[in-house]
Write a structure and sequence with these properties.
The protein is an alpha+beta fold. The chain has one domain. The protein contains five helices and eleven strands; from the N terminus they run E-H-E-E-E-E-E-E-E-E-E-H-H-H-E-H. Helix 2 packs across helix 4 (179-197).
Length: 251
């Protein structure tokens, strides 16, 4: 495989959590978790070849211990081909391009974003924005116990945890954390928790507006909770549970 040219900032490795060093090159570059295509039908997968086409761009990683950090983000792209099978003849009769984009948390194919099954330690909330899950967990706790708004979660991070307010002079991406970043991180982590608990994979549209991307998944979860209740509430009562009558009049 040819060398991927990336800029690596000098920073001691011990300042980055060892749990997700596998996603970081020289402590400052975010990679997809695998450097090989995960499509079982891809010829590069069957031959054990590494992904060779890569693109990089600047980003910001918001961490709990080290504040806001400039990072390089790597996206890998599969140039292999997949066999297309004839269902009736039971053999392949043509080939199609694989064209899978691999990102830090998910891969993209045919306009669909499929999240990896393992829980991440860093969540991507935008093309250039990445947040450590420990920070998101802190926000979820603040919202639950202190009724804290996303705006105040962002403000608290900027003033108490960010450590630096401005990026290096040669960095094009600002360090400002916005309420929508907090909301997106909250939503994504909650949906990933929910899907992993049920042994399912989170799939959302990759196209369209970010504000609409997770609506269908959130609505499906709300409907399921309405029907089967939350796991934290192991009982039924008129205060915690609402009963909806079906077409047959039964609750």
């Amino acid at each position: 495989m040819g060398t991927i040219s990336v800029f690596v900032c000098e920073r001691p490795a011990h300042l980055i959590s060892s749990n997700y060093l596998c996603h970081l090159a020289s402590s400052q570059t975010l990679y997809p978790p695998s450097h090989q295509c995960q499509n079982a039908d891809c010829n590069r997968n069957s031959r054990g070849l590494r992904l060779q086409k890569a693109e990089q761009h600047q980003g910001v990683l918001y961490t709990l211990n080290d504040g806001s950090l400039p990072v390089w983000v790597i996206r890998l792209y599969c140039q292999g081909v997949s066999a297309c099978y004839d269902t009736f003849a039971m053999h392949s009769h043509s080939q199609i391009a694989c064209k899978i984009d691999y990102h830090l948390n998910y891969y993209v194919r045919a306009g669909q974003r499929t999240y990896y099954d393992s829980m991440p330690e860093v969540i991507q909330v935008g093309k250039h924005r990445f947040i450590e899950c420990r920070v998101v967990e802190l926000w979820r706790t603040d919202m639950l116990l202190a009724w804290k708004s996303a705006t105040n979660c962002a403000r608290t991070y900027q003033f108490a945890l960010s450590k630096v307010q401005e990026p290096p002079a040669d960095w094009k991406i600002g360090f400002t954390l916005k309420p929508e970043h907090v909301y997106d991180a909250f939503t994504i982590l909650s949906l990933l928790d929910d899907h992993q608990a049920r042994g399912e994979t989170l799939v959302v549209p990759h196209t369209g507006n970010q504000q609409d991307r997770f609506k269908t998944a959130m609505q499906a979860r709300s409907i399921r909770i309405r029907l089967y209740h939350q796991p934290e509430i192991n009982h039924y009562c008129a205060k915690c549970i609402r009963t909806y009558k079906g077409p047959d009049g039964q609750g």
